[in-house]
């Protein structure tokens, strides 16, 4: 597990005369730290979820076979439509086996497959909040030159972040091929999924890249990786260092 460290040069922010603005900037800097921690945990869970089994285990196979065998005896006494009987019995056997495994503590495969997507979305939401925090910091009269530069560096490093975040958050629109109330004009993109064709994609994971159809019809993605978070870590640290502080240094995470 990689730990993404940060340090404030002091305990309390200083150097801003307007107490209201001092409080706002201090809270926003705390937000940057919190969201980096959120992203780090999301990345940790994302990596772990990538190792979860996606296929039926031997125990699950055995449970299903046992359930099937226990009800095949009923075939002889059932209706004349033997194919319908077999379909019903196979369905019952499958449901019985799954429920037995769940009682024993097994996790449904659907839940397992969803986990990487959820952790990737959490990572993206954390980065999106950091970008919003940087924008708000830059609206203050006392924004440092480094803070202004940091926002530009962040946006260049993650050009599709806002659009991917919007698509992740508004899946109800993307499912209908819409952006708000307007139909999306799908664009042909050369991606590992579409290969230059035109298609509508919901949330996708290609390796460690989370993506989907954006509001403007293009396919966009964000890399969920240690390299991405190191970029964010460097940017946040530069912003923290650019302000005046008093008191002892503080090291994160605690």
Query: Element order, helices and strands?
Result: EEHHHHHHHEEEEEHEE
Largest sheet: 3 strands, antiparallel
Radius of gyration using CA atoms only? 25 Å
Number of helices: 8
Strand content: 5-15%
Count the beta strands.
9
Roughly what percent helix? 55-70%
Cα(first) to Cα(last) distance is: 16 Å
> In which order are the strands of the major sheet placed?
5-6-7
**Would you tell me the structural class of the helices and strands?**
mainly alpha
Q: Judging from the principal axes of the Cα atoms, what is the shape? A: elongated
How would you describe this structure to a colleague?
The structure is a single chain. By secondary structure, this protein is mainly alpha-helical. Helix content is 56%, strand content 11%. It has helices at residues 19-49, 58-72, 82-103, 109-139, 145-157, 161-169, 171-174, 226-241; strands at 6-8, 12-14, 178-179, 182-183, 204-206, 209-213, 219-223, 244-246, 250-252. Strands 5-6-7 form a 3-stranded antiparallel β-sheet. Helix 1 runs antiparallel to helix 4 (109-139), helix 2 (58-72) packs across helix 3 and helix 4 (109-139) runs antiparallel to helix 5 (145-157). The radius of gyration is 25 Å and the shape is elongated.
